[in-house]
Structures are given as structure tokens and as C-alpha cells.
Design goal:
Length: 487
């Protein structure tokens, strides 16, 4: 059984104070408090700490001056962990565990490992079981606060009976895959995560099959909610001739009777093409799926993922298209189930077959993130462009969008370089020669040091452990100049 204490750091003293067993330790300015602090910013009875089930529990006691735990406001009772820092007034209390078993270290998977786990859980669920994905942003918190917040979220999910897998999506962003819960229990858990994380953290979640049938679809939905941007881009971005031809056909297809089937890999842009088709007719579609069946006989219907529908369920929706006034559009992975005599088919090629679309889409998605993050100078670097162009994009446009939204958050400088991209892109990209690789690595290190020191060359040289004149010389050789300021 562990013994607990707090290390008191105030203007009067720095000393440990044991937490009593069986009764709370009252902290405040009142005489006779278990821990008396002579601080005018501290209330008479500011907070209490009681050991419950071998773990300290903090109660802020409704103090008007507030309590921060690891820089996060605490407004309700919460459990504490070793290393937590409690701030009240000008004083600090650091929680210590004296003896007893230590809590197991929390292992966070890499982003690539987390993505692979999410895809595996999607395959295992096959749409028959609920599956959740959650993002928790800890931007603006110090390392201790970030670790404590992460532990708090992980513990809360475990206490709800879920066996989740956690990974580090970026330095200040964790992701969790939550399988095996019933849909109602999963929805309740995802709604509770923001309260557990606290007001200084930002959370977002997605749930299968409601938000998609692939890991990339769930990632995209969660990232869009985290950044408060629309899940579906309003206007398509097209540059490759194959997609230009497809969009040129929309007017003809929209005027002909019969249903339209848009087939291609999931995440390739089928839905974007479908929405452009409806816009060409000035129609707002009713979206239906296996989770949201058709109700009534609307004039415009978008039926998603036809492969999940039985023939008996699909047939009456397609029959609505016999009425020339109606536009019925279906998305699917293949054309096998559609009769060419009654259904027009448009095939969307995979993103890997549309090389000119890759960078055009990457720039468009970066523009989305730029506005959401209020970072107007974010731009895609040459090294990142090479990796994006060389990658095969098995997750299609959805994967590219998620990669760019994540890269925009992870970038420590205004140029989004290869260091902001997932490692799987570097592993799949072509190997450059040694001289070129060393030059790129040197450039990345210099740019990161300069970005972290706001382009203070002297500070960057100190950070790199190099003489200032060496950094100036290498900047000149690599053509690195301080970015122009926005007017």
C-alpha cells in the first residue's frame, strides 16, 4: 500500500507534507488547516486531498480563486497521480508516492502503428460492431500536464470497460482506437471524454459505421471535427486529365433519365463527384445508407456504399430513377451490380492513377488547415512534395487529406517538410543518394532550430551546438532566408 505526500513549494517553505489516512488534508489560509498557506490569493478553505482506494482524490471545494492541475483548471473532484502539479495562488503542490508499486508506464504507439491498428479493427468489425476513434489535443500544455492529461483519459476509458489502443499522432495529439463496445456505450464514452480531458484540451471523435467504413474515413472525420472544418469539401479540386474528363460529363449525365452509379475505391472522391453532379442540377440530395434507410420519395437521393446493400434493398431505390424528375446517385466499389441499360456508370480511378491530382489536392487540403489553424504562411516544402508524389496512397484521397491536416498541426515551422509527414511516406519514397540525403537532413535541422528560436540565429546556433558563423555560412549555402513578414 503506497504512502502519499505532497511537496509544498511556496514563498515560505519547500517541504514535504504527508497525506493522512482516513481523513482529508484541508489546504487553505484558515488557521488550523491541515496545510496552512499564508497567501492572499488562497481561500480560507481552498481545496482538500483525501486518499481513497489507495489513491489521492482532489476536491477544489468551490474555491473562487481556482485550482489548476498540470495547468488545467480543476472544477470537480478528480484523482491524482504521482508527479501531478497543483497550483493555487502563488503556491505549488507536487504529488509524490512514497513506496508501493509504481503505475505502469504508458506506452503510446507510433502514428503508423495506430493507423494499422485502426484499419485492422475496421476489418474485424465489418460494420457489424461499433468502433470508435478519438483524438485529444494537448496543445499549449507543458510536458507534465500533457502526460497527466493523457493518463487521465486512458484511465477513464479503461474504467468504462473498453480495451483501447493509444498512439501519438503528433507531439501534442494522441489518438485512441476503441473497439468492442455496444453502440450506446461507445457513444456515451465518446461524449464523456471531453469532460475527462478538461477545458484546456480539445477532443474529437468518429464512430463506425456511422462516419465511414475505413480507418481513413474515421481519421478524416475526427480530424475535420478537431479543426472545425467541413467533412465534405465544398468544391472539388481537379488537375489530372482523367478527372477533368469525368467532371466534363456531369452535365450530360445529370440530364439523362435513370440512376447514376459512381464506382471506384473507397475514399477516391466518389462522394465529391456525386455532390458535383447534384450541384449541376441545383439539387440538395437526401443521403441514405444501411444505417440511414430511405424515407419517402425525395427528388434527389445519394445512396452510399452500395456493396453493403442487399439486392432487395437496392432495387426500390434504383427504381425511383425511372421518374425523369428524380436524380438517384449510387456510390460503389465495382460496376457488377448495375444494369447498363438502366444505370449510367462513371468510374473514378484510384489516386495513384491520377498523379497530377496528388499535389493539387495536397495544396487544397493545406489551405483548409491554414485557415482553421490561423497559420497563413504554411506552405508545402519541396522535400514533402517529393514524398507525396512518390507514395502509392492506398487510402486514396481520404488518406491524403488526413496526412495534410495532421502535417499542418505537426509542422513546427511555416514550411511543411518531410519531418511533418508520417514515417510510412518516407519508407515508401525513393532513396536519394547519400550526399543529397545529408543535405536534406542538414536543411531540416537548421529550419527546425530556426523555427523554434523565431529565426534568432544566435539562439539557433546555441541550440545546435555550433558557432554562430557556422550557422550563418550553412544558411547561405542552403539558401535559407528569414521568411518575409505579413503586412
Amino acid at each position: 500500500m503506497p504512502r502519499w505526500a505532497v511537496l509544498v513549494v511556496s514563498q515560505q517553505r519547500v517541504a514535504p507534507v504527508d497525506l493522512p489516512t482516513g481523513r482529508p488534508l484541508i489546504v487553505g489560509r484558515a488557521r488550523g488547516s491541515g496545510l496552512e498557506l499564508r497567501d492572499p490569493r488562497v481561500d480560507e478553505r481552498h481545496l482538500s486531498i483525501r486518499v481513497v482506494n489507495d489513491r489521492p482524490l482532489l476536491d477544489p471545494l468551490g474555491g473562487t480563486s481556482g485550482v489548476l492541475v498540470n495547468d488545467v483548471p480543476c472544477e470537480a473532484p478528480m484523482p491524482l497521480s504521482p508527479g501531478d502539479e497543483i497550483a493555487l495562488g502563488d503556491s505549488r503542490l507536487i504529488v509524490m508516492s512514497l513506496g508501493g508499486p509504481e503505475a505502469p508506464a504508458l506506452r503510446l504507439a507510433t502514428e503508423d502503428e495506430l493507423s494499422a491498428r485502426l484499419e485492422e479493427e475496421v476489418r474485424r468489425s465489418s460494420g457489424a460492431r461499433a468502433l470508435g476513434f478519438v483524438l485529444v489535443s494537448t496543445a499549449g500544455l507543458n510536458v507534465a500536464a500533457r502526460q497527466a492529461l493523457t493518463r487521465r483519459v486512458v484511465d477513464a476509458v479503461e474504467q468504462a470497460g473498453a480495451v483501447a489502443a493509444w498512439g501519438e499522432v503528433a507531439d501534442d495529439l494522441i489518438g485512441g482506437v476503441v473497439p468492442e463496445l455496444e453502440a450506446a456505450a461507445l457513444a456515451a464514452l465518446l461524449e464523456a471524454v471531453p469532460q475527462v480531458a478538461g477545458p484546456r484540451a480539445k477532443t474529437a471523435s468518429a464512430q463506425a459505421p456511422r462516419d465511414g467504413h475505413t480507418g481513413d474515413a474515421l481519421m478524416e472525420a475526427a480530424f475535420c471535427r478537431l479543426l472545425s472544418i467541413p467533412l465534405a469539401p465544398e468544391e472539388p479540386t481537379i488537375a489530372d486529365p482523367s478527372m477533368v474528363r469525368l467532371h466534363a460529363l456531369l452535365d450530360d449525365f445529370g440530364d439523362k433519365p435513370g440512376a447514376v452509379a459512381i464506382v471506384g475505391p473507397r475514399g477516391s472522391g466518389r462522394g465529391t463527384l456525386a455532390r458535383a453532379l447534384f450541384r449541376a442540377r441545383g439539387l440538395e440530395p437526401v443521403e441514405v445508407s444501411t444505417q440511414r434507410p430511405l424515407d419517402g420519395r425525395p427528388a434527389a437521393v445519394l445512396l452510399r456504399d452500395a456493396e453493403g446493400w442487399t439486392d432487395d434493398a437496392l432495387k426500390p431505390v434504383l427504381e425511383l430513377a425511372k421518374d425523369r424528375r428524380r436524380l438517384i446517385v449510387v456510390t460503389a466499389t465495382s460496376r457488377e451490380r448495375f444494369d447498363p441499360a438502366t444505370t449510367q456508370v462513371l468510374e473514378v480511378p484510384a489516386l495513384a492513377e491520377r498523379p497530377l491530382d496528388v499535389l493539387a489536392l495536397a495544396d487544397a487540403f493545406l489551405r483548409e488547415a491554414r485557415a482553421a489553424l490561423a497559420r497563413p504562411r504554411l506552405a508545402l516544402g519541396a522535400d514533402a512534395r517529393r514524398l507525396l508524389s512518390a507514395y502509392a496512397w492506398p487510402g486514396q484521397v481520404r488518406e491524403l487529406r488526413t496526412v495534410m491536416l495532421r502535417a499542418a498541426r505537426a509542422a513546427v515551422r511555416d514550411e511543411v517538410g518531410s519531418d511533418a509527414l508520417p514515417t510510412r511516406l518516407s519508407a515508401a519514397g525513393p532513396r536519394s543518394n547519400l550526399r543529397g540525403a545529408l543535405k536534406e537532413a542538414e536543411r531540416d535541422l537548421l529550419l527546425e532550430a530556426l523555427a523554434r528560436t523565431r529565426w534568432n540565429v544566435t539562439a539557433a546556433a546555441t541550440r545546435l551546438g555550433l558557432p554562430r558563423r557556422t550557422v550563418v555560412y550553412r544558411m547561405a549555402r542552403l539558401g535559407l532566408r528569414r521568411p518575409a513578414r505579413l503586412r
